[in-house]
Write a structure and sequence with these properties.
8 helices, 4 strands, about 50% helix
Length: about 210
């Protein structure tokens, strides 16, 4: 049984930073992470806000295409391979500061490069256009939201899934991923908060610019 379920959309910079914190803790402790999916494209199906323009939607569609491939990776190669694929995507999109126009206009090239970096079969890129994955991805998105409420984004984390002390949060949203003992200390604090009975919300609006180094 996993110790954590991490719901991500690969185009979200905040999810990426939080995921690097999780991976850092995982490297220091015997901690099993189950990588799961939440689609910003589906999450914003009914978004009519002025800021949610065609370019924004196209970026989220690229994320959906990558998630379709990630789902195919899950089915054929398992959870650890999903983690490798997500890492490769994030290194390109976020750390490499990929031009957003390239992400919107050339998603297949971005996905193909990530498959290669993750040592996964190149033909999986064809799954980017396979809508058969969408039912599962919508179900994953709804599951994540059922655990936190709907007025949230990515990432969503579930600590101790399936246990009596299971707890889920949107976030933590980090502007920079802590490392070493700082990462472990934050982990222990967040896990305690998430799994404490009756804990409902902890929030502040201030955010620094995302730092990917």
């Amino acid at each position: 049984m996993a110790d954590l379920e991490f719901f991500f959309d690969p185009v979200c910079p905040w999810a990426w930073i939080t995921s690097r914190w999780v991976v850092n803790v995982q490297e220091q402790q015997d901690y099993q992470v189950n990588w799961r999916f939440i689609s910003l494209y589906f999450l914003n199906d009914n978004n009519v806000a002025e800021w949610y323009d065609a370019n924004y939607r196209a970026g989220h569609r690229a994320g959906l295409q990558a998630l379709r491939v990630a789902d195919a990776v899950r089915v054929s190669h398992g959870n650890d391979a999903v983690g490798r694929f997500y890492t490769a995507l994030g290194q390109s999109i976020h750390v490499g500061q990929l031009d957003r126009a390239d992400l919107r206009n050339k998603p297949a090239e971005v996905i193909s490069a990530a498959l290669g970096a993750a040592e996964l079969p190149a033909e999986l890129v064809d799954e980017a256009e396979n809508e058969d994955h969408d039912e599962y991805l919508r179900a994953e998105t709804e599951l994540a939201l059922s655990r936190t409420g709907k007025d949230v984004g990515t990432p969503i984390l579930t600590f101790k899934p399936g246990r009596d002390t299971e707890g889920s949060f949107f976030g933590p949203v980090l502007s920079q991923a802590p490392r070493g003992q700082d990462a472990v200390d934050l982990w222990n604090a967040i896990e305690l908060i998430a799994t404490t009975s009756g804990m409902a919300e902890l929030k502040r609006s201030n955010r620094g610019r995302p730092q990917f180094d």
